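Comment thread on ticket #2218

A.B. wrote:
> Attaching the input chain for the structure job we discussed in standup.
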Amino acid sequence: MPPFAEKLLTVHPPIEVAGRWIKRYHVTSDPAGIAPEVQRAAYAILPELLPAPDGTPPATFVVLHRGGDDGAYLNAYSWVWDNVLHFRGAAAGQPVLDCPDGDPSHFVTIDRPWIGCVWELPPILHERDAWVRHVLARPAPEVPDFDAYLTDSLAEGTTGDRS
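C.D. wrote:
> Ran it. Output below, let me know if you need it in another format.
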């Protein structure tokens, strides 16, 4: 096993997919970022990972991770039931996760109870705090500030060393 190293984390503008606003984080060791064809394939499968509307503001944040091998991973964390985080994931190029081939742009949904690896987890705490700050903890009669939530993202940098 190679020595552990943090990876690069970049933030991309929110997009709308299937009626939900998607905040986007990318994780990779490659300073050039994630290849456009991998990004396109990941966002093409994203609608399959999103929950049905339930009255909660339609927000999701994703972590698209390009592994050091052929693997690519898309984790979709969606806010439901006002304060619950719904998770679905997809992977490409990773035989251990039942991907059909080594193509990092051939995503399939995965049904494992895993929520993310150490490089994919850093956005979760930030997004929890941003959701509370902008959506849940608004004093009455103020309404949730969904636009403020969408613009409040974890700072770019590395996946760790943030203390």
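A.B. wrote:
> Thanks. Noting for the ticket: The longest strand covers residues 8-17.
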